[in-house]
Amino acid sequence: MPTLTFAGTTQKYGTVDNATVIVEFDYFVATNLIIKNSSQRPDGKRAREHALALRVSGNKSALFNCRLIGFQDTLCDDRDNYFFKDCFIEGTMDFTFGSGKSLYLPVIGPGSAK
């Protein structure tokens, strides 16, 4: 899968503008994509170490089979409505935040309930 990376942190770019990908238009769709914030892992000693992978603000946006990798606040579903199907979200804490109304459908695999 293609990988988009950026090493933004809150300290340098602010809380919501440090994301690797920032989507501000409606009807955005991503499929089979890795979006990763590659900044240094937070050590808990430095302030403002949040490292978002994705901030989505466009209404009716959808992601399918994507991996979002960051640290604190990996995904900001900022406002409006979003759909995530078969996506993997990885972070150290507060994986998602924002005022959006999101629907997350899990990956169904061997041994999972259907």
Automatic annotation (TrEMBL):
The keyword Secreted applies. Pathway: Glycan metabolism; pectin degradation; 2-dehydro-3-deoxy-D-gluconate from pectin: step 1/5. Its EC number is 3.1.1.11. Residues 11-103 form the Pectinesterase catalytic domain. Keywords: Aspartyl esterase, Cell wall, Hydrolase, Secreted. GO terms for biological process: cell wall modification; pectin catabolic process. It is found in: Secreted, Cell wall. The keyword Hydrolase applies. GO terms for molecular function: pectinesterase activity. Gene3D superfamilies: Single-stranded right-handed beta-helix, Pectin lyase-like. Signal peptide: none annotated. Belongs to the pectinesterase family. This is pectinesterase.
